[in-house]
Amino acid sequence: MSLEKLDKKFILSTYSKDYTNFIRGEGSTLFDDRGLDYIDFASGIAVNSVGHNNPRLVEAICQQAQKIIHVSNLQVIEPQVKLAKRICELSNYNGAIFFANSGAEANEGAIKIARKYGETQFKKKRYKVITLEHSFHGRTITTVKATGQESFHSPNFSPYPAGFSYVKDIDDIYSSVDDETVAVLLELVQGEGGVQPFSRDKVQELSKFLKQRSILLIVDEVQTGIYRTGEMLASNLYNIEPDIITMAKGLGGGVPIGAVMTKHKAILSAGDHGSTFGGNYLSTTAGLAVLDILSELYDNGQLYDTFIYFEQKLKNIAKRYSNLFDKEVGLGLMRGLRAKNGDIVAKVMKNSMKQRLIILKAGRNTVRFLPSLTITKDEIDEGFKRFEKAIITI
Ligand SMILES: *Cc1c(COP(=O)(O)O)cnc(C)c1O
Fold this sequence. Notes:
Radius of gyration: 21 Å
Order of helices and strands: HEEEHHHEHEHEEEEHEHEEHHEEHEEEH
Bound molecules: pyridoxal-5'-phosphate
Helix content: 25-40%
Mean pLDDT: 97
């Protein structure tokens, strides 16, 4: 039976997927079972932060696997402690971390911390969490409810947990808080919602407003974190110090890991939260290798050079194809082209795959680019060459 047929028979059909069978990757190039090469401008979905088959990451994982992969969290785990310390240092954040296995789980942890804070720190219980329309926070029952897109709240999965409400924009948060509001949860650059960065001034003002009222600011950095927008965290770029920050996608370079970091270190106590796999030797060793590689690129200026190079190429395309795209959007290597309509995006996606270029869609009308942070200029050149071939006929 063909791989496609086997997939359709044995895998639950939650994705409409492409059936190219990738068997190997090298940097930002993938190879299929026919030996054809593809330029990867998606890196999973911002997951392969240091590229495919990165020798330093592979070496770290192999070395660790030969020693020990897992013990339970009832034991101290050295690379877990080291990774937590490293994340706090690189993001200049005076906090402590709980490790999970995914972004949704990290957000679940954040919501639990907020709920307990709201229960224990005030005379009248606070439990409401405000999030934004066009946000995305995960696929568990709670994080799907935290996601502010109506299309995610299918009655098929109801009832959902209470206490979540949505506002259109940051400006609307002020009039929405009441004496039961415990937290605001937001992405600084909305990823799935359309690569939409918020203004630095507005976020700083919001942060101040919430602090004055002891309402927690939770920043979902599952997609923006780990140098994606130019600093270790987008919160560093925005110069804010949220109460809780969640991370996942790029942190393990492809090994599943999630993290929730907070400066409210005393809220959770033994028994409040847990995870069987979270923070084990394998994933946290991968995380340490990823941060070694990326902090080096950051320090020597190479990461910034790559951002500028990619941005110039994208701006150039946006200008020359103003018949298709209104503008380029995003920060760092979290970029998008806002298309005139959804039909254009569908055609761009289809044609790009024919040209063997992997890109993503975001929201209704945005073509999204999330390349590996180690992508080379040659790979960027080749990717944009293919992109232009894909769009020239539209
Ligand atoms: C991908 C994503 C999530 C969910 O992460 P999973 O690992 O798929 O659970 C949550 N928040 C944001 C901003 C994301 O981009």
